[in-house]
Amino acid sequence: MLRAQIEEYMKINNIHQIDLVINKDDKLAVYCTLQGGKLKDYTNHVIDRKKDIWGYLEWKNGNAIRKEW
Asked: Which long-range contacts (CB under 8 A, 24 or more apart) does 36-41 make?
């Protein structure tokens, strides 16, 4: 999913922060926030608009579950 689609998803579902899994085989996720309508990572840089992002982490009972878009 592209950055613009994720931003729209977050706006519709009133989500302000998300942990993105950029590539399917990545061990770690990138903590991101929606600021001014743009998706920014933990270093306050805007996520690449051309990068196809694989998925995100969903948290349940303190455990992270990897979800594909």
From this structure: 37/7, 37/11, 38/7, 39/3, 39/6, 39/7, 39/10
For residue 22, the SS3 value is coil
Task: Locate 27 and state its tokens.
Answer: 């061990």
For the chain, residues with pLDDT lower than 50 are none
CB of 17 closer than 8 Å to CB of 33: yes
Identity of the amino acid at 20: L
For 30, which DSSP code?
E
Global confidence as pTM: 0.86
